[in-house]
Amino acid sequence: MLLDAAKHLALTRNFAGTIDFIFQPAEENEGGARLMVEEGVLGKYPVEAVFGMHNWPGLPVGQFAIQPFNRSVRDQIGPAIRRVAGGACRTCGAEMKMRYERRYPPTINSRREAEVAATAAASLVGDDNVKRDMLPSMAAFGEEAWCLYLDRQRRRRGRGNAAQPALRFQ
Question: How far apart are the C-alpha atoms of 120 and 129, rounded to whole Å?
Answer without folding.
Answer: 12
